[in-house]
Amino acid sequence: MRYIYRMTKNKRVLIRGGGDLASGVAAVMHRAGWQVVICELPDPLVVRRRVAFAEAVWEGSVVVEDIEGVRAENLQDLEAILNSNRIAVMVDADATIAGQLAFDGMVDARMLKRFDAYVGKLPLIGLGPGFSAGINCSAVIETNRGPDLGKVIWEGAAEADTGIPGFVEGRGLERVLYSRSRGRLINYADIGEIVRKDQLIARVEDAEIRAPFDGVLRGMARPGLLVKQGVKIGDIDPRMDERLAYQISDKALLTGEAVLAAFNQILSDL
Question: Any idea what the CATH number is for the domain that residue 45 is in?
Fold first, then answer.
């Protein structure tokens, strides 16, 4: 499902979450002329860091494809960043900025899979499982791969979380690397690197994480992070193309197009 969207000037959106899916939404909306503010945690755990604006929390600034995201420390910073045609990233886990600055809409891209009823005034677009239109958001975007990926849902809920990533060249769940214990993450391979089967990729305490097959390390959580047991910390792609680590995924772009189409519909009805 693809959308044709028009350029929209002088509109501002707040996106909760700065991971790869959220960043795809941010990129699409930025390119369509919206000013974008991303709210993140003080220590975000992101795997596909080369295509995630959340990295600006750690680095101060980050470039995803051709778009720069910059950490804003206050409202003055934020306005300067937006007015220079960049994306603003704030450490604001509760999205309190929504009460201090005027926005035309909000996107919840945290992928928490469970949400309370929404009582805010802004039009809210929810991504994926846990959202139900009219209950805890204005509209839902389907994020499960399949024929409905990118569908705007105006009534009802998104599909339940399957816990299984999309298949790439016959590889599914084994593409994802998980921590096997709680502790600090030590990395032995870099994002974009070609890795070989059984190569040591990382370690959490005494538990080793090795490559399950030959591929490119498309994503890896930030070294030194304290991670819980069983959380996603890496992503290997069997296509052996280093460029994949630096490209926004088709899924993220399609989700962004759907979000933009939904907001255009909502705003046209106001």
Answer: 3.40.50
Please tell me the predicted confidence (pLDDT) of residue 9: 65
Question: How would residue 24 be classed by pLDDT, with cut points 50, 70 and 90?
Answer: very high
Q: What is the CATH number of the domain that holds 210?
A: 2.40.50.100
pTM: 0.92
What residue has token string 């204005």? Answer: 138
Helix (H/G/I), strand (E/B), else coil: 144: coil
Give the span between the Cα atoms of 226 and 43, in whole angstroms.
10
> Burial level of 256, CB count in 10 A (0-12/13-18/19+)?
buried
DSSP string for residues in 26-87: HHHHHHTT-EEEEEE-SS---SSGGG-TTHHHHHSEEEETTEEEEE-SSHHHHHHHHHTT-E
Dihedral pair phi/psi, residue 252, rounded to 5°: -65, -40
Nearest to 38, CA basis, from 71, 15, 70: 15
Compute CA distances 35 → 21, 145, 187, whole Å. 18, 28, 35
More confident residue, 174 or 132: 132
In the structure, what pLDDT confidence band is assigned to residue 118 with cuts at 50, 70 and 90?
Answer: confident
pLDDT-derived band at 93, boundaries 50, 70, 90:
very high
